[in-house]
Amino acid sequence: MRDTPAETDNASAARTRIREMIRLGEVEANGKLPTERDLCARFGISRRALRRALDALEAEGLVWRRQGKGTFVGQPPDPNGPLAAAIAPDTDPLSVMEARLALEPELAALAARRATGEDIARMHALAERASHAPDADAAELWDGSLHRMIARIAGNPILSAAFTLINEVRQEQRWQQERQQARSPELVAEYARHHAYIIDAINAREEDAARAAMRAHLLALKGNLERIRSKDPAQ
């Protein structure tokens, strides 16, 4: 089934579709993905959305690309995507924020215990891409990739599964629309500072500091979303 026109430029949705394709083993024996043209036609997504999704998956370490050869699976994806996709339509951004506040500070603390130097470098790269994204779609994609990487670094499969369940709603159009309103230049700069504090605490192996930095970041985001919704008479 093809995506609706409103979803064809959603890079987060494209990333999820590709992760599901990998999960189902719909790749060549050597792990090679179909060509970009084939993926765009198969998923009904734009070339821009596809390339952004592949960039994010590569930064997460899930795929790798070789010039002139194609894109290859780098490591197995999270197997809980289908369940998360089933739950996502029944959620809303604020309920997701409540769940994130219950989970992600602990994931950040675990990441502070287990992150490698390579992990830190990748987190900095993702944070940089999020803070300099050209539009809301790209910003959401890279922000989601950073938080997903922290969850993966935490190394707890049960918590990782829970993170996947609450994170999938980020590809929903309603989430994208509200997050776009919460991304003024001032707020983007604020979120970039939050990400830097989180990464620095993880790099310093300071579990309590990483936990506190993540919680402060999520509380700020939740507060911004609440203010946006309070001004919308449709909410």
CATH names the topology of the largest domain as Four Helix Bundle (Hemerythrin (Met), subunit A)
What is the percent of helical residues?
55-70%
Q: In the CATH hierarchy, what is the superfamily of the largest domain? A: GntR ligand-binding domain-like
What is the CATH top level name of the largest domain?
A: Mainly Alpha
What is the level-2 CATH architecture name of the largest domain? Up-down Bundle
If you compute it from the alpha carbons, what radius of gyration comes out, rounded to the nearest whole angstrom?
A: 17 Å
Shape: globular
Secondary structure: elements and pairs:
Blueprint: H1 11-23, H2 36-43, H3 47-59, E1 63-66, E2 70-73, H4 81-87, H5 93-114, H6 117-131, H7 136-154, H8 157-167, H9 173-181, H10 185-203, H11 207-230
Antiparallel strand pairs: 1-2
Helix pairs in contact: 1-3, 3-7, 4-8, 5-7, 5-8, 5-10, 5-11, 6-7, 6-10, 7-8, 10-11
Structure notes:
This protein has 235 residues and is mainly alpha-helical. It folds into two domains: 5-73, Arc Repressor Mutant, subunit A, CATH 1.10.10.10; 81-230, Four Helix Bundle (Hemerythrin (Met), subunit A) (Up-down Bundle), CATH 1.20.120.530. 68% of the residues lie in helices and 3% in strands. It is built from eleven helices and two strands; from the N terminus they run αααββαααααααα. It has a two-stranded antiparallel ribbon. β1 (63-66) and β2 (70-73) form a beta hairpin. α4 (81-87) packs parallel to α8 and α5 (93-114) packs across α7 (136-154). It is globular.
